[in-house]
Amino acid sequence: MKFRKTYKRKQAAVLLSVFLLVTSVAGCQRVGAVKETGEEKVNVVTTIFPQYDFVRQIAGDNVEVSMLLKPGEETHSYEPTPQDILKIQNCDLFIYVGGENDEWVEDILDSIDTEHIRLLRLIDCVDTVNEEHVEGMKEETV
Length: 142
Description:
Layout: H1 2-25, E1 42-46, H2 49-59, E2 63-67, H3 82-89, E3 93-96, H4 103-111, E4 118-121
C-alpha cells in the first residue's frame, strides 16, 4: 500500500515536471515547424509513447512532437537510426526516461552538440525508492 502511494506521488511529480517544462518552452522561438499564424512551433522529441502522449495532450498545437521508438519496441536494445540522431540534434526539447531504460541516449547526447537543446531526463524528476525487502525474498547477487 505504501509503495502505491509513493508511486502515485512520483507519477504526479513527473506529470507536473513535463507540464511545467513544456509550457515554459512553448514561448521559445527557434527554426522549426510553423503554425498557421506564422509562429514557429516548439520541436519536441520523446523516446516512448507515454512522454509523447503527455506532451501532445498538454501542449496541443503549440508543439511539433515526435516519438523515436515505435509502440512495443524494446527500449533496452534500441539502436537509433541516423534520422533519429538528427531529430534529437535538431529539436528544442528532448524528453527521455533515463537510467537503464535509455542507456543508449547518454551515448547519443555525448556525441552531439546539445547546447541549444533542453533535456528532460525524467528519472531525475523523482526520488528513487529502494525495494522493500520482505522475508522470504532471495538476495540478488552481483
